[in-house]
Amino acid sequence: MKRILVLFFIGMAFLLSSCSFLGDKNNNTAKDVLAKGSIDPNYGLNNVGYVPVYPFINNVNKPLDIFYGYDELIYVVVDNDETTIEDNEVLVFDQKTTLSFRMVIPGATDITQDRRLHCYVTGRYYPDKQNSPDLNLAAVYHMTGLGSGQLQFLDTLKHFQCDESRRNTSFRGTDDEAVRFTGLATLFDNTLYVSRTGPRNDVNSTNRPDNGILIFSPEGENIGFTNGLNTNESSIKSVVGVSAIATLAAPPQRISGISTSKNFFMALGENQQANLEYRALSIQVVQDPDLGLIYQENANFLNFDYTKADRFMYESNRFKKPEDIYASPSENGYIFVTDSETDSLYVFTSLGFEGINPPANSNFKKQVVVSFGGSGKDGSASGPYNFKNPTGVCYFNRTIFVCDKDNNRVCRYRLNSDLQ
What we know:
The protein is mainly β. It has a single domain (42-418), classed as TolB, C-terminal domain (Neuraminidase, 6 Propeller). 7% of the residues lie in helices and 33% in strands. It contains three helices and 25 strands. The strands form six sheets. Strands 1, 2, 23, 24 and 25 form a five-stranded antiparallel β-sheet that branches. A four-stranded antiparallel β-sheet has the order 3-4-5-6, with no helix packed on it. The chain has a four-stranded antiparallel β-sheet with strand order 7-8-9-10, with no helix packed on it. The radius of gyration is 22 Å and the shape is globular.
């Protein structure tokens, strides 16, 4: 009996010590987390929500984008000094969030990886640095070995020659300087999507509009463009000011079961002057036997079924300045959107309903809203549920990663129902 009691107290001591996941119970951070409970109890269950997973990745200067790779390494793009493009970097962390490698890429803003473990980074290049040291144009750097530190550059997709419609055209001066590559995503077959913004968007020109998505083969050939999307006005298939793109193909690496869909999601946060009613969109790609690939709106997201949810991704003016969007490859297929204007992270289902599925053992039938953020009661945005200008977002193994840019950290969260 004494032995049983000793084992019991040892076990209790171990259990209490395990509270370090949220910090010591006397720690202010732990109190904040425990007091948080649900994100908003008025929307549903008070025992469902995201909780921080520590440690956060701290002391990263102005993180812009994050991607949890097929190689299960964490890639973070940082902007060390916003007054210059010369010191933007890609940082590589292992699963323990230990920094293992870093490299400078001028003007780097976004990163992704395909299933071959090839990495792509958007940045800038100098077409003639000796004679025009200030002139730089948009580029996508294609490389291997970034995760291992055995870096090898394979190709650079350079504006404007990488666009098939521009290969025989001349430089357009400041208009070409204004063009930006703003997002990257890959498909199951390693096809690459590159989102682009710019000032010239005449749909009747022989040159493609600047606003849109360029499509590249795994070998780097420009094999398509998203013809048919609205390049100048607001709609549920607009590409005005696209700031990010995401597909349904995402890590982890697997032989079968990965989505073969060519559909994609977009955030439209680049052009704040445009009066855009919808700033987070789902685009369907349909194969027509005569016309080829057709890019069209996903009208299913306009189904506001209030018996299933209280809020929706396609509500008018739902977002202010969405920076990034990511689609979970899990069976639930959640969509994550960061908004730097509202300092928030939003979570939607694959049908555009805001929230997550209620627990199986609950009587609650609607989606449970778990979106969170803001600057906090004191406006400092220093708490674990607060953000200050959030940018990149990704998802891996039931964990959300958010670049909290102006707090110089990458935050991690997991549903409390997923904690095991």
